[in-house]
TrEMBL record:
Protein name: ABC transporter ATP-binding protein
PROSITE patterns per the UniProt record, alphabetical: ABC_TRANSPORTER_2 (PS50893)
Homology family: Belongs to the ABC transporter superfamily.
Domain of life assignment: Bacteria
Keywords: ATP-binding, Nucleotide-binding, Transport
Keyword Cell membrane attached: no
InterPro entries, per the entry: AAA+_ATPase (IPR003593), ABC_transporter-like_ATP-bd (IPR003439), P-loop_NTPase (IPR027417)
Segments forming domain ABC transporter: 2-227
């Protein structure tokens, strides 16, 4: 388990993290989201003892990071992707790391296989692509078979196959009972990977809830309705409290009324329906909605794509 209690970190006048409290539970993937500059990396650095908080407390498995006797066996971390500037082979890079913690070569080979680097393990890691570098970073994080994983943007630089691989790996590690805490900018990816979310903006907590609840709470739910008599039907629905807009290809997008109610109103009015589809909001929409006031470098009015119904 990871615990942050009233964490605060300032850089000069800049408050990067402010009075932030949350816990990350084992057994599920927890996504860590926030707009650019929200304080995600700073929080992860504080958790890992790489920076000292100005206030509050951060513990992993009940202890401060520097007090962990063999840290790699408790927590594995991947911080923001950087190319590995090493003349060593991937194998030797991991072996050196392993030796500092009394981990044997058999485990090195195991993690190399686990992350799919077997064929390039003897090649110079400095020449690795960003995606291969990420895999190597993940191998290093897994070296001590830790119960807690902290991953900052792990899918950065991975191709679709790599993204799928890491999604499944994170879910697998969580299903084994580990604590998996992962930040990402890819909302669609988080929506299918993380069961729980911690969302911050300007260093403060915005949400700490299940991914499903987050979307339900924040994204507008709509129903897509198609009818040959769309215009008259829209008038009826609006009269009953619905908010109806027409999208580019003539479908009605109805909010404020649930699909069953729309079906009943259509039947009562004798309207033919060709479609009646509840459309769940996306994590991206929910995120934009909830973090709108917390965007550090936002534009005053972001241009919408053409055909965008908003
Ligand atoms: N070493 C530092 N010195 C000064 N300011 C810093 C430092 N590290 C971070 N900051 C500032 O603190 C704030 C939080 O930064 P942080 O990198 O933690 O955000 P983030 O959520 O990880 O952002 P991103 O998604 O862009 O990586 C930002 O305004 C950033 O400019």
């Amino acid at each position: 388990m990871i615990e942050a209690k009233n964490l605060t970190k300032r850089y000069g006048d800049k408050v990067a993290v402010q009075d932030l409290s949350f816990t990350v539970q084992p057994g599920r993937v927890t996504g860590f989201l926030g707009p650019n500059g929200a304080g995600k990396s700073t929080t992860m650095r504080l958790l890992l003892g790489l920076d000292r908080p100005d206030g509050g407390d951060a513990t992993i498995a009940g202890r401060h990071y520097p007090d962990l006797p063999r840290p790699l066996s408790v927590v594995g971390a991947l911080l923001e992707a950087r190319a590995v500037h090493t003349g060593r082979s991937a194998y030797n890079h991991l072996l050196c790391l392993a030796q500092t913690q009394g981990i044997g070569p058999a485990r090195v080979q195991e993690v190399i296989d686990l992350v799919g680097l077997r064929e390039v393990a003897r090649k110079r890691a400095g020449g690795f692509s960003l995606g291969m570098g990420q895999r190597l970073g993940i191998a290093a994080a897994l070296l001590g078979d830790p119960s807690v994983l902290i991953l900052d943007e792990p899918v950065n630089g991975l191709d679709p196959e790599g993204i799928l691989w890491i999604r499944n790996l994170m879910k697998y590690l969580a299903a084994e009972g580990r604590t998996v805490f992962v930040s990402s900018h890819l909302m669609n990816e988080m929506a299918v990977t993380a069961e729980h979310l911690i969302v911050i903006g300007r260093g403060r907590l915005i949400a700490d809830c299940s991914t499903e609840e987050f979307i339900e709470r924040s994204a507008e739910q709509q129903v897509v309705v198609r009818s040959p008599d769309a215009e008259r039907l829209a008038a009826v629905l609006d009269e009953e409290g619905g908010k109806t807009t027409v999208d580019g290809d003539g479908a009605l997008l109805v909010s404020n009324l649930e699909a069953p109610r729309i079906g009943e109103l259509a039947a009562a009015g004798g309207f033919v329906l060709h479609e009646l589809t509840p459309r769940r909001g996306s994590l991206e929409e929910a995120f934009m909605e909830l973090t709108r006031d917390s965007v550090e470098y936002g534009t005053a009015s972001a241009p919408h794509a053409e055909g965008d119904p908003r």
